[in-house]
Predict the structure.
Amino acid sequence: MNLKVVQLLVLVVWSSSCSAQLQHFFNVQNKPFVDLFSDVQHVTGLKNNEKINDTALVNDSTAVLDKADRSGVEFQYQWRDIQGPYPVSQGNKTNDYGIKGYWQTVIDSSAQFIATASVHKGIEENIRFNVMRLGHLYGPYTLVNKRHADFKYQQYQLTAQYAANFKYVSWSIGADYIGDYAHTETDPRAKDISAWLGINTAARLKLPNHQLDLAVRYQHHTKNLDLDVWQGNVKYQFLLMRGFGMYDHDFMESVFNKKRLYRQNLFEIGLGGLLFKSRKTNVILDFNWAKSALITEEQNTINLHQLATSSLSTSFVLKRILAENWRASISTIILNLDQKGTENRYSLVKVNENYSGIYDYVKIGAVQPYSLQYNQFKTVMDLEYNPDGQQFGLFFAYGQTALEERYKGTAFYTQINKSQLELGGSYSKYYRNKEWGLAFRFQPERLRQAKNIKDTTVESMYDEVYLPQYLYNSRDQDTYSLAVSYAYSWFKKQKVGVRLRLSSIRGIHLNEVVYAGIQVTEFFGNTSVFWEF
Amino acid sequence: MDLKFFTSIVGYFFLLVSCSHLVQAQDKNNSNPTRFHLSGRILNPEHEALTYASIALLPLDLTLSSDSEGVFSVAVPRGKYTVVIHAMGYVEHRQIVDLFKQEHLEIVLVRQSIALEEFVIMAQYKKESSDKALISQTALSYIQPTSIVDALVLLPGGLYSEPSLNQFSKINFRQSGSDNNSSLGVSIISDGVSMHNDGSRNQLYGITAGSNPSFGKERNLVFNAGLDMRMLSTDHVESLSITRGISSAKSGNLSSGQIELTAKQGVSPLEVRTKLDPNIQLGYVGKGFQLARKMGVLHLGMDILSSTPDVREKLTRFTRMTAQANHHIDGVLFERAFTVNTKWNYTQTIDNFKTDRATEANDETYKVHFNKWDFTIKSSFFVEQLLMDKLELISHLDYTYDALDRRLLVYSDGGVSMSNAVEEGPHRAQFLPSKYHTSYQIENKPLQLFFQLNANKYFNLSEVLAQRIAYGVEYNSSKNYGMGAVVNPDLPPFPHDNTFIRPRANKDIPALIHTAYYLENQLQMQLKSLNTNLNLTTGLRVSQLLNLPTSYSLNNKLLAEPRLQLTAQTDYLWGNRVLTSNFRLGFGQQNKLPTLDYLYPDKIYRDFEVFNWYPNREEERLLWTHTSIHNAENKKIEVNRNQKFEWGVDLGLFDFDLSITGFEERSNSGFEYFYSYIPISYVKYTTPKFPVQGIPDLNHFNTQDVQQFAMLPTVINSSKVIKKGLEYRINTPKIKAINTQIEINGAYYKTTYSNNQPKMYYPKNLIDNESYPYVGLYDQSRIHTSSRFNTNIWINTHIPKLKLVLTTFIQAVWFTTSERGQGESFIPSAYLDKNGVTHALDWSAPSRDPLFNALDLTSEKINFNQDKTAPSYTVNFKGTKEFKKFGKLSFFINNIIGIQSKYQDAFQVNQKSWSAPYFGVELTFKLE
């Protein structure tokens, strides 16, 4: 159930990004511009989703900084096309255009400020069942109505980070914002406004031979969902809303308009350290813990659903300088993620005896029928060779994932276990005024176990919420990725460049009767052109 | 009274001038000159002449501009002045000049940049009238408003609201809630020209006042509510000045307040601006050119705005294009300086053919056209004569073509009766199909002429006493050449009530003409011993509506509006620091004149079914209706008079500025389509006397006399609004450690909406199978009171070194309340019978007929509890970064955090408001 899990991994990604931010500001390295798989905007809007898949390849270096002031603008285009079964909440075809501006400045010799702002516009086609964009972010607590819709969206992103270096301590503080404004033009027409506001701070204690990192982050997310029908003076139009929880048991709502608010608070803390940093062999340790709480709110002020998520990830990296230009590393990442859904029950009661017909909802209880557990283990071996003006990289990774999802005991039950192998390499070449690079990755993924149970006596949305995810993920697949980049600099620090990345996934469905033997092909492309001044 | 009144005004004027002149003459005799020439040269940072910069002398309210050599010269009375110089793209320069001899200034202006400490973000306020807010070009360039409404959030009491350009956008000042009379009473003055749409008119059920079009696609068509702010582009505006208190006597035909727009003019680099957010896309390009030597400067600008406020509904998309050419020239004629400003504006809606799935499915069309041309010439002459120093003539012409062409599918629910009769009495009518396509058009073509002649005279009566006299005359005409509502009477677009389906053309209605005369006197006195400057402004404006039928009470009537403002500004020494105080007091009467729609409403034709024969055979069907005609016109209509009283205190303490303004406004004569019960009598045909075969003959039917009440509208000055409130503002000095300045402002508003007409109630009871015979009249109609208390905190962090401005705007609405007033009457004091006769009713009389019990409304369960919302907080953010010398990028997030608490309403039901975030980017390039 990767899709559902991937969003949950945002928690973990940010944990790792805490240390990444520290790298970003404190380890100002002369990394090449050609960082082939970095800074990939996720085509559906959550860039972090993509990063988790790239962790092994990217090596945590998400940007290149030096101590010069620089500004730039970047034009981006991304697309995805899936032929065969696809994740219903994201559609099978996506096109995304964007422009991004960035600004980096050195405030004084020990402090830096960097900010980025971007605007994206795109469309996700053929979203099924969900009347909300990014429906997979809310567990089973989505709103379901339509059979098909295209979501058009605009997305605005802003990040800002300030960092200061002192003798023994370094400190950074930052904020980020993503605003997503989406809509559909088929009834019921959805207006879906989502926002993620994050603040973070990190500190590093610099000891003679070691360093210790502490990073914390808070994120507040809201989604305002507004559904309407505009069929002019055709009178019989209405919405038939369905959803897990109360609607299943008490009523199915028939309304002309529906609004719902989702709110989520996320808190995470990361603790890390670099040991023996001046030796040829050093160790990086990272512990990250995150917890989030999602709650839904209806127009009549009741809170039907709650979804609590917690995650713990640990990573261990052993780095070794083999020779003057040779570096190697072995890293291990372990992740555990736990999710629990609570459904509140309300009763509609008369609240004012003085007037007739005055009713309101009163909470009468709560149940906790939903749970999800996801575990991941991954180990990566990385080898890097840096002769003059060149850089060679090679990596190999192996990992396993296990997912178990339950609703009402085993009324609905899903289990998917997978193993992944990854193999990749990169080459970069630098000249006085230009640089180029090439990278590839091959990632076969095999299904070790896939199982699902459906209790047909329980009237539910199993077919809309659980089954599609299971169907999409119960498959073997091979992923091929290729990235190239080129940059050219000229007069007064001006630089232009282009990045191109292509991915292809070929898979075949195994267990499930419906899709058994059906092949799926996914294409993903990401390209950008930038001008730096 | 009129002539006497007018004579006394003229007398007052001559008294003022002659006294002042006497003082001047005495000074001359003393060979002590009272006037000196103030001249200067304005340069850009490269020390090149800056042409056509604006030079204002405060407090004289005298404005002139530099010539093609950057030079200016003016003779003014001896005194101490603040010289304010601004040119587009440059930082405003202020300099105090103590003029006791000829003075020449050499001023170098600095280019505007966020890198400068002087970068202004917030609205600024004049000391003389703290309720007058100036939103300068730097503030405008920072907030980048899409509409004037966006800029109002800077003012105390202003609340952020998501931009919504899909529907009529109106302004309501200083109130909790809103009403059309208040927005109608907001005057928009563009470079001295009073802009209004009082000549636009519509009479069609489903759209016009009194009906409720909010459910239909016609909801955008709003009349009698002032100018639609969507049609005013802020891209062509250099600065905005907003007066919510007492306006100058120069300004009229307003009741709530005024917004003055100053157009961009002068030489400027090529500016390209784009704004992109989910609902609005805006593009602007503009440049100011220096024409050939002594040919003046020309500023050209054009913008396109597209707004799809609810992106799901394409029918609401609004796209408009505006263009402006503003030419400015000055010179010397007969040794007197003059300036001539010629401005041309054009506004047009694009995307005129609107469609969505519903209109396509129903084979409907919705076509709109809006084109507006306006042309203004503003000339100023520095005549320096006995009666005037400066003479200004403003001539303006604008023409609007505003049309809607609508084809729609109508469900009449079958069998609805329909009549086209234009005379009272019974007429044969027809049955409507249950479903049909029809179309209608609404066409307005108002042509507006505006002329204003203004004169100013400046005196220095002594070293401590200065005087400015302003007087002038104004002519305003608006003639609508449009066809108005054009409908197919056989297939009405809104068949459920055929009230207005026989409209007359707009072009058949006389022009709306009014003139006005004003006189304003400003006295400034220095009380040196008290370190106090007194400033007293008294003004009188007299308006007159012309071209009305003689039967109208307003015809040629002189309508006086006295206005008074007094300020006392004092400096106190506290060690080596200066503390300041400024006490303000104001009173004013402001009149809003009725619109064409209110003056000339169409007759209302109400058809009552008197015979309905509907056999299966269509050719045998017969329908008769009785047509009753009601004249909604009110020849006794008066102006909407608004009386304002306000007081204020401004304190300057250790670099903190504190300001409090209290006000009370009373309007007891707001315009309204007031619905009242009117008795109607007609004969109804009931049962056949003989068996009917074929088409029935009415003579073969029994008849019944019917007397009933119909609810019909008449234009009356019935709306009553009382606004009270307190506005406050606190400015902190810049906190240097964090480069931050904070402004806290807010307001408490309490607004009472009621009506000066008696309430009417008609019971639905049947008495002996007959409808109830009386309508109850109750002394006091419904009273509704609304209040609001808010605080806005603006945290502006300006880091010149990084060319960065960050604004965090926290909006706290502590509460809003809404309640029904207990002063409403529930016991009738009179009743109306079916003959239209009103009888007094003594409710306490023991002999009262029990029939009247049905009029007793005391037993109704009415909720007088106050509906009070819980506090709600929203945080908005904006960041602007300037790149190099040419680019500026802004990112804004409104409602980045929204905290709304749950509360129980007046019925003890839980309620909570929601607010969604809104975000966008803005990019500006300036290319030299």
